[in-house]
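Lecture notes, structural biology module. Today: joint structure prediction for complexes of two components.
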Amino acid sequence: MTQELTFAVIIIGILHSGIRLATPYLYAGLGEMFDQRAGVLNLGVDGIMLMGAFFGFYAVYQTGNAWLGVAAAVLVGIVMGLLMAVVSISFQAEQGISGIGLYMFGLGLSSLLFKTMLGTVEGVQGFSELKFQITQNFSLYDIPIIGPIFFNHSVLTYGAFLLVPISAYVLNKTTWGLKIKAAGQNPEAADSLGVNVTTVRYMTVILGAALAGLAGASLSISLLNIFQENMTNGMGFIAVALVYFGSWRPYGVLAGALLFSTVNALQLWAQVLNLPIPSDVAVMLPYLLTIIALAMPFRRAAQPAALTRPFTRGDN
Amino acid sequence: MTNSNLLPSGLPRIESLEMRNITKRFPGVLANDHINFDVKAGEIHALLGENGAGKSTLMKILYGLYQPNEGEILLNGQPIEIQSPTDAIRHGIGMIHQHFMLVETLTVAENVALGLKSPREPVMDLNAVSARIVDLADKYGLQVDPKAVINDLAVGQRQRVEIVKALYRGAALLILDEPTAVLTPQEVEDLFVIFRQMAKEGHALIFISHKMDEIFALTDRVTVLRDGKVIGTVQTAETSKRELARMMVGREVIFERDKKPLPPGEVRLKLENVNVRNEAGFPILKDINFEVRSNEILGVAGVSGNGQRALAEAIAGLQPVSSGKVIMDGEDVTHLPPAEMYKIGFSYIPEERMHDGVIKDFSISDNMILQDHDRPPFSRGIFLNFKAIEQHSRNLVRAFRIKTPGLKTPVKNLSGGNIQKLILARELARHPRVLIAAQPTRGVDIGATEYIHARLLEQRENGLATLLISEDLDEVTSLSDRIMVLYGGEIMGIVDADAVSIEDLGLMMAGERRMAPAG
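The predicted structure, tokenised, for the full assembly:
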């Protein structure tokens, strides 16, 4: 009896963590998906996430207002995105290299700011979990099994999941989504029909970076409520991989995010439960999965044809 | 009947459009030099000129892709500003580009809707778009399915989508930039029917081309450009192919080739029962038997994709021969690699010149010695002899009249005709005994074509054995002594060039007739 109960608790725990940990992957991955659909590869996601995580954390640390943290993270994301856009779209720098540069910049600056402005690892009161109190005595959290898995997350986590259908709608049903897809597939054609390819790419890169900033904040003011140097541990790079994994589709990114976060949750629980797996191997799992996922012959055809290709009018 | 000033699409006609004194300078080039050009409703006006004459620049100015340095554009007598394609579209000017401007992963309706405001902004209204596409398609006799994805459409259908796209945007004037470049003859005829009907209903059409036959089949007036200037505007019905060619090139162009009768010499190249399979194991050449003699050009005719490329590559050693023999000068060379073939007097002008013929980022000099760079006089031991290389390149550039700023210029900066001359110069300078020339004048302007033909005939007189592979029937019939037709990887017949009719060649190319070898 106790055995079964413990087992159920573990499964619930893993699923709950899986959903929770998908939050940063979703924000960063969906943002990167927009970039790439418009033809821009931004490899600096991890650096933007770190900057978002720091500024989000610092705003909450100073004001105690979690929403100000979100605003700060989005704002710093927009600034980083603008930087990426100027370098890679206006100056047409090699996108892979400028992205790596942006990553190192974000990594270095967030560490420096952490050391000079905070010095030690502190905690804040970020977003708390919503329990969906319906009446005095009943909340959705009280529903057996389903409650503890689905109705015990912060507003940022729900926001991340809500962003999936919103992204799909924007991409497939709006004129803006059509322009994004055209800019990433055949920018010359888009230009010939009066679509301003440069504007479309600027907007998507900035949007993607704002979401990456939010992804960082979701770590520092919602999931963990602390800031540490390099706290993303390469999550931003996994988010880029998720876009490939998900064949440049919002629901594909969702599937990838859930897979990775669940594997992550598994390895955390494996450590908690002291399973006879070396912790190094457990920590390696998500990255190993990344390599396997990317080595598989995915629908390469789905890749935007003009990805990483700068656009100049009349240059063909 | 509705107002006759309206087009079937319901939009007003462009009665006249005039470009006055248009001048456009690029660094180092005067692309358009005080050009005057006009087109009227109901007219198809051809813009003719060699590559680089300034046709595309002029039309890109009209469509707002370039800004002119001088000049003005008048629409129905009123001056207008065209700063961008959006402006052009607003004024009723549409353009069908040489390369399709379609997003291949999107549907027809999405391609049409792209860049337009939706009535339900920011949400698309594809049903409304589709309904209007069907309506336009009915009025103009264009068959298109709004829900089809571009990737699934044939080339001819894609061209129709381009036309619908322009009409949907209210195009009263259409710029057609070499719209037939990738179409089959049947698709071209269908397209011309549509163009003629559009003109009849009051559209103004500008037709850019360098194909004479199409100009005579379709247009009312012709304006010829050369070196950025208008040479003249003439009524199509009152001119001739010869006159237009002279205006275009600036001197008399000889369409008839001076092919001296020569007795064929010894057999230089012989194929015996050659079979070739592709990577999937499917036969692409079946039992090929023929010979090419000294002083002879053997033409290979056929619709592209019927084994011509495999034939050239099998002889060159680029494609493995699964059975049979390739014999050159009596020696079995079936399995010799390309480098060995080059050493024994074989030369090859490949059909994909930018891909297989040159290294486009390398200089002219480097490209001139690609096969022979490791042999004297171009190298001594492990060192290149730059003096000899430069001397050699300079001589060839002069002898073959290759237009280039210098010997160090990367080949990619040359025009197609000059690149082809470079390849020809390199191959002929090697004094080959056997030459394969595959599509030697494809995409090359009239002047360069004339020159290349003259050089091939000159080499024939000097004893060269040439296998000429070409899709251009005029080229094959005017240069060759004998013509071989390939269909589905098989030889349909080898006939005397002087004795065969174009009709017979056409039937053989379609696989409907076999003819016994001549003699």
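Point to remember: The radius of gyration of chain B is 26 Å.
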